[in-house]
Amino acid sequence: MSAIKKNVLEVENLVAGYGRIEALHGVSLTLAQGELVALVGANGAGKTTLLRTISGLLPCKSGQVKLLDGDITNSSPDYRVQQGLAQVLEGRQVFGPLSIQDNLRLGAYANREGTDERLQQMYELFPVLHEKKHLAAGTLSGGQQQMLAIARALMSKPRVLLLDEPSMGLAPLLVREVFRVIQRLKDQGIPILLVEQNARAALAIADRGYVLETGKITLSGKAADLTNDERVRSAYLGL
Ligand SMILES: Nc1ncnc2c1ncn2[C@@H]1O[C@H](COP(=O)(O)OP(=O)(O)OP(=O)(O)O)[C@@H](O)[C@H]1O
Ligand SMILES: [Mg+2]
């Protein structure tokens, strides 16, 4: 018998949007301890809106977000980071003029204890960042900037990690590298909610998945079952 894993994130009936435009119409999902969950959906489905509402960058209109048993529905983004929630934003948001090392140190702002030790861990996980630690982040390639964005999020010692399109715009070799890193984070036991247009690769490493269509979850289940689902295959896997 497998042990029942505790949820680290629970989203219940979340409604959110922009002004009077509602982009999420009551979304519910869960992420359990040690799980990698993929969220797939077409352009404009509301994936980024969902992650931004979970991390508090967007207010929700109704519904609930629970992180490790605490209700964070109306908490500030900083509080959520302190409580263990980290998000890698869409489009590799690094501070270009700052050095790689300083970008990483900024990632620890909400939880400074053990910063130096975590810096060393990041340099082990991403050797290229170690080689270039004194260079401006803006000099890195797109793939390296994505590694830096992930490493910066990890500097806050997250207990839940949200990743928004980490492979977007990268060459195939770097896409594979990013997915290898995500697999390693999963192996380290970090629960991850992964948003990806690359549904095939995301479902290949995920435990479970959700399909989001125009602000609603329309399908969910084990990643392997979703990969075999006719609707998923024709709409998202190009089969
Ligand atoms: N800043 C904004 N102001 C108004 N509407 C927005 C804004 N950002 C997104 N939207 C709208 O909200 C809906 C959901 O967009 P969202 O960016 O969450 O989708 P997505 O699934 O992340 O898409 P993509 O795959 O392109 O990243 C879309 O209809 C979009 O046009
Ligand atoms: Mg998006």
Provide structural commentary:
With 239 residues, this protein is α/β, with parallel strands linked by helices. It has one domain: P-loop containing nucleotide triphosphate hydrolases (Rossmann fold), CATH 3.40.50.300. It has ten helices and ten strands. It has a six-stranded mixed beta sheet with strand order 6-7-8-3-9-10, sandwiched between helices. A four-stranded antiparallel beta sheet has the order 2-1-4-5, covered by helices on one side. Helix 3 runs parallel beside helix 6. The longest helix has 16 residues. It is globular, with a radius of gyration of 17 Å. The chain starts with 6 loop residues before the first strand and ends with a helix. The model has no long low-confidence stretch (mean pLDDT 94). The site of magnesium ion (MG) has 4 residues, from helix 1.
Mean pLDDT: 94
**H/E element order:** EEEHEEHEHHHHEHEHEEHH
Extract low-pLDDT stretches.
Answer: none
CATH uppermost class: Alpha Beta
Distance between the termini: 35 Å
Question: Total number of helical segments?
Answer: 10
CATH superfamily: P-loop containing nucleotide triphosphate hydrolases
Strand order of the largest sheet: 6-7-8-3-9-10
Binned strand content? 25-35%
- How many structural domains can be distinguished in the coordinates? 1
**Known CATH architecture:** 3-Layer(aba) Sandwich
Shape: globular
CATH topology: Rossmann fold
The tally of beta strands, per DSSP, is 10
Helix content: 25-40%
Chemical compounds bound to the protein: adenosine-5'-triphosphate, magnesium ion
